[in-house]
Design goal:
disordered C terminus; 250 residues; 30% strand; alpha+beta; 11 strands; 7-stranded antiparallel β-sheet
């Protein structure tokens, strides 16, 4: 059996784990930063689910009864530019969750969560499947190793996200297409050359190629709003924050 016959029998090509895109939405991260994060995210997972069970004992064998859904953490990996904007964004996000520099108080849950959409792409770059993680936030930002012997490598930040649950998206609504406009592809992908001081590479995770370049402009939205308005929006219970975060997502 040749490869074409195999594809014919299974009804198409097999899905590749290299073909994906990730978008963090909501008011926690502004739209420009969302685009940059999506382009720098090089590792993710399709979420799983398992059941917490309880034993039901009657006459005969013990029966396992589903009692709650459990969702594992999502680990996302991001390439970092020289300014470490991605690292700063997630540490700022954590500081907004708890202001450990002064009051040590925690913000309200609805004020610091965001939704994350993960898309599986086919070989042509079209979305074949999509899910959204609801009410996600960074539980852990992993440390990044500094090493004189690693001069030819670059930082790859790992962030562990927790969330309440996930749902499958309706592909007819195009959950991701409104966020990214992809230009023509250029061959000879070179990550080392792409992460230049003047900007960050826009990656095509389908073909592994450079698309274009954008400036380093990754910001934590809450801090931007605070600096622009002059108001202390980071305090727990700030009025109006709930209305701005993930409007209409449920």
């Amino acid at each position: 059996m040749n490869i074409n016959e195999f594809k014919s029998r299974i009804g198409g090509s097999l899905a590749s784990p290299a073909n994906f895109r990730v978008m963090i939405s909501g008011a926690v991260v502004d739209s420009d930063s969302s685009r940059h994060l999506a382009l720098l995210c090089n590792q993710a997972q399709m979420p799983g689910r398992y059941f917490q069970t309880a034993d039901r004992i009657t006459h005969g064998p013990i029966a396992k009864i589903a009692s709650a859904s459990i969702y594992d953490e999502m680990v996302l990996s991001f390439y970092c530019q020289e300014g470490l904007g991605v690292y700063e964004l997630f540490t700022d996000w954590q500081s907004y969750i708890q202001d450990n520099a002064s009051t040590n108080e925690f913000s309200y849950f609805d004020d610091y969560v965001s939704d994350i959409t993960i898309e599986q792409l086919d070989t042509s770059g079209k979305v074949s499947y999509a899910v959204t993680l609801i009410d996600a936030f960074p539980r852990m930002v992993s440390p990044m190793q500094l090493d004189w012997s690693s001069k030819d490598s670059f930082h790859n930040l790992q962030v562990s996200m927790v969330y309440r649950y996930w749902r499958k998206e309706d592909l007819s609504s195009g959950p991701f297409s409104k966020f990214l406009n992809v230009s023509s592809l250029f061959p000879n992908f070179d990550v080392q050359g792409a992460l230049q001081k003047t900007g960050v590479a826009i990656f095509d995770n389908v073909g592994g190629k450079i698309l274009s370049k954008v400036g380093q402009n990754i910001r934590f939205s809450k801090n931007v709003k605070k600096s622009m308005s002059g108001e202390q929006q980071g305090d727990a219970g700030s009025p109006g924050d709930n209305a701005n975060i993930n409007n209409g997502r449920r």
